[in-house]
Amino acid sequence: xxxxxxxxxxxxxxxxxxxxxxxxxxxxxxxxxxxxxxxxxxxxxxxxxxxxxxxxxxxxxxxxxxxxxxxxxxxxxxxxxxxxxxxxxxxxxxxxxxxxxxxxxxxxxxxxxxxxxxxxxxxxxxxxxxxxxxxxxxxxxxxxxxxxxxxxxxxxxxxxxxxxxxxxxxxxxxxxxxxxxxxxxxx
Amino acid sequence: xxxxxxxxxxxxxxxxxxxxxxxxxxxxxxxxxxxxxxxxxxxxxxxxxxxxxxxxxxxxxxxxxxxxxxxxxxxxxxxxxxxxxxxxxxxxxxxxxxxxxxxxxxxxxxxxxxxxxxxxxxxxxxxxxxxxxxxxxxxxxxxxxxxxxxxxxxxxxxxxxxxxxxxxxxxxxxxxxxxxxxxxxxxxxxxxxxxxxxxxxxxxxxxxxxxxxxxxxxxxxxxxxxxxxxxxxxxxxxxxxxxxxxxxxxxxxxxxxxxxxxxxxxxxxxxxxxxxxxxxxxxxxxxxxxxxxxxxxxxxxxxxxxxxxxxxxxxxxxxxxxxxxxxxxxxxxxxxxxxxxxxxxxxxxxxxxxxxxxxxxxxxxxxxxxxxxxxxxxxxxxxxxxxxxxxxxxxxxxxxxxxx
Lengths: 187, 404
Prior knowledge:
A: two-stranded antiparallel ribbon; B: five-stranded parallel beta sheet; globular
């Protein structure tokens, strides 16, 4: 008896669950409506502390296994005390985290075993905008570059295709590349 | 009025079905809102040619469409061809008859039109995909000074308001219109989202020759991995020209067309573009390379010259709308079925069907992307679908008769 061995790929992603969710939520769009939250407290100076714990989705409230605290501050070159990353750097962390999760999911779905994935994210930022020093300079980034180094059981073209597909399905990539309506109010 | 089968739509799909019904001896009528090939008459610009070469275009009983097999028919030639085809087998077309309602009855269906009602035992929807242009909601935010034209309404550069033009959408229509405007000396900006890049020719043969030979066009709807995506795939970036030239974003960019990401917003007189262009260009280049790899593998040949990757243009995330005189929406189109029971449609208003067979017995659809095979929405693909669905339909009529 001969058997056909399909490659056993384990990137730690439960692709069956994701595909099942896609199928189920296509038929029940109400359940697909999620609401993410972060709660922030000013500490002192430019230092603030944001806690991420609860969110809403699949028609119910949920909490993460444990709360996560993200410090936000400015570095000493900004005459601050540097209790943590600048919020702009946290945005870069979010982009890298989102794209990398996508790479693992897409790789698993395509039967590609990953051995290592690392990325460097850089953003160019002219801070004259936020300082109000030049009205023609925007507050945000001029551009963001992500460079991946990926060791996987696949040729270069397949790895590049993984990275491309991950961008097509990334929430943070979308949030950064497309406008989003934001309202801020005082309670 | 009574007949066995009502076919709605007198384009290539409706006529192909009519040919099979005629050959099978099933009495039927073809209801057409205008005249045969109406969409080809009113929704094509004069210079438009088919994306598929002549050798490939076939309809049931009509295997040689005439002309140079490697050339591409113009829209008016397609109209002439469909006219001649309908006449040749005496297709029972009722022109200037608009359907207003299709209802299930105890014995089959009632099809109401602006010229009376038909009772029949089966209905074939062959109205195609061109119900309405799909124009994004933000079009309403553009100022009144800007001329707005859809790909259906576009005719020629001379009828687009003088000045710079923003073309939105980079599938076949968008790249062709951008190219025609550029050649007419217009300053053109092209907003680019997901697109499918293929060379017109590779290894000296038309790309459709390869797609045909590789079996890609014959992939079945129940075998393809992601049917939802396959049915929504944008049209190939191609133009039919006697020179068999390729028309892609690299060519347009080299010719002076400014490329931007998708148009994603209007804010205080500025058009905002997505920052995702680099990824769409890269993904399209990778996908093209995979197809060319398959062709190389198929012929067992060594490497040959390939199209260069699309150079990344300088990033543009916003432009003043005041610099443009016109916007061309080449953002696609979608079918509309206001005369069908909404229960037959999905959330997006598309017909629910299994290879052209609807859940309601006796109802069929054809001529949609990937109805049964990847070639389903091509003139080269509707014939086999019509044959298969006609056989199913005849079986249904037989069952209905024996049950009666």
